[in-house]
# Entry
Amino acid sequence: MINNIYKLKSPKYFEKTYSELDVDKDVIVRPSYLSICKADQRYYQGQRESKILDEKLPMALIHEAIGKIIKDNTEEFKPGDNVVLIPNTPTEENEYISLNYLSSSKFRGSGFDGFTSDLVSLKKDRLIKLPSEINFKIASFLELISVACHGVSRFKKIANDKKDILGVWGDGNLGFIISLVLKTVFPHSKIIVFGKHIENLNLFSFVDETYKVSEIPGDLAIDHGFECVGSHSSQVAIEQIISLINPQGVISLFGVSEFPVSINTRLILEKGLTILGSSRSEREDFIEAINLLKNYPQMISYLNNLVTDFIEIKNLNDLNNAFNKDNNKSFGKTVLKWEI
# Structure
C-alpha cells in the first residue's frame, strides 16, 4: 500500500512524499493528535548544525503523538482502539542498559521518520492502549510526561530519604510537568520553582513557592535539584543548584544544550553531590504516566494550562503555520489534530 509521509525537506519547507507500507505486518496506526516539541522546532527552524541537518533531512518530524488502530496483524488491539505511540525504537536488548539509552536504538523524528504521515507501522510493544476517559489533547504529549516520570523514577532510586525541599529550575513546559509529577509523587515535599518569567511562574499554582532566579533569598537551601532549562542558560541554573543544594543531594539534569556547559567540580566534590542525567523514556514510563493521570485526575486540570494552541492540520500550509505559531511563544504546547 502507498503511504503519504509529510517530511521536512529543508528548514521551513515540508514536502509530501510516498512510501510503500506493508499493511500485513505488525500494527497499522493512523495518527490523530500530535504535539510539537522544541526538538522538532530546532529542525524546522534550522537551528541544528548544518552537518546534522544534511544527514537527517528529509525527515518526518514529531515524536509526541497518539493514534487510532486501523489494522493489527498481531491481534493485540482492535480496530478503533486509541493508543499512544512510543517513539523510541530499540533494535536489541541489554541486561544492564535501558532501551532508551542504547546507542543502537532509533528515535522517531530524530534520525528516522516521526509521525507526520497518513499511516504508521509499529511493533505492538511500541503502542499502549489509552483509557477511554483520557483527554486526547493532553494525551498527545504523553511522551513528554513519560520523560518526567522516567527522570523522577531514576531519582527515587538513588536519592537519600531527605526530600523536604525539592527545587526545580525552569519555568517552561518541561519544568511545569516535572514540578507537577514531583508534587504528585512526593506530596509532602516542598516544591520550589525557579524561573525568569513571572507570567509563567504564576501558572505553577500547584507548587509551594516560586522565585525569579534573580531574586532568590540568601538563606534558602534545597535537598535536591532538577534542571529543566537547557541551552546556554543551563550553566547558570546548574551553578545556582550547586550553590543552594545540601550536601549529598542529587542534581537531576533534563535540559538539552547544543554547547558544552562548565560546572563547579570543586563544590560538587566538597558536597559529595550526585549528578544524574535523564533523557527520553521507555514503555514502563508511558505506563506510569498514564497511571498517574488516571489515579490523580487533578493533574489534568493543571496540564490543560499547557495547551495554548489547538490547530487542525488539513494540508502542509496548516502544518507550516502551526510550527511558525508555536515558535512565537515561550510557554505552552501546540497540539495538532491530524486531519491531513
Observations:
- The two ends are 18 Å apart (CA to CA).
